Amino acid sequence: MEAEQKNGKKILATVGWISVVLLTCHLMAPLLMFIPICIGVVLRRDYEAESQGLALIVSGVVGGIVGWILGMLLMNFLV
């Protein structure tokens, strides 16, 4: 039963990386920054994927900050 419950590692990683990409391009980045961070924590804690979980956490924070700055710059150019 334990092996059946923990077979979603690929799905979590895929959703995490897609959210990092979308987070970088989105104007509401600080509100969505928690998604890759939470998925990274779950990967590290429950699936023993230390490096991939840490990469998602760091990418989520960096993507959120970059997306926020890009959103501010874009809004300045439009106004």
Beta strand %:
under 5%
> How far do the termini sit from each other?
57 Å
Order of helices and strands: HHHHH
User: What class, by secondary structure content?
Assistant: mainly alpha
Low-confidence stretches: none
Rg computed from alpha carbons, rounded to a whole number of angstroms:
15 Å
Shape assignment: elongated
Number of helices: 5
Number of strands: 0
Largest sheet: none
Mean pLDDT: 81
Q: What is the share of helical residues?
A: over 70%
Keywords: Membrane, Transmembrane, Transmembrane helix
Transmembrane segments: 12-42, 54-78
Lay out the secondary structure:
Elements: H1 2-5, H2 9-25, H3 29-32, H4 34-46, H5 50-78
Helix pairs in contact: 2-4, 2-5, 4-5
Provide structural commentary.
By secondary structure, the chain is mainly alpha-helical. It has a domain of about 35 residues. It is about 85% helix and about 0% strand. The protein contains five helices and no strands. α2 runs antiparallel to α4, α2 runs parallel beside α5 and α4 runs antiparallel to α5. It is elongated. The model has no long low-confidence stretch (mean pLDDT about 80). Keywords: Membrane, Transmembrane, Transmembrane helix.
Quick overview of this protein structure:
Keywords: Membrane, Transmembrane, Transmembrane helix. The chain is mainly α and 79 residues long.
List keywords for this structure.
single chain, 79 residues, mainly alpha, 5 helices, elongated
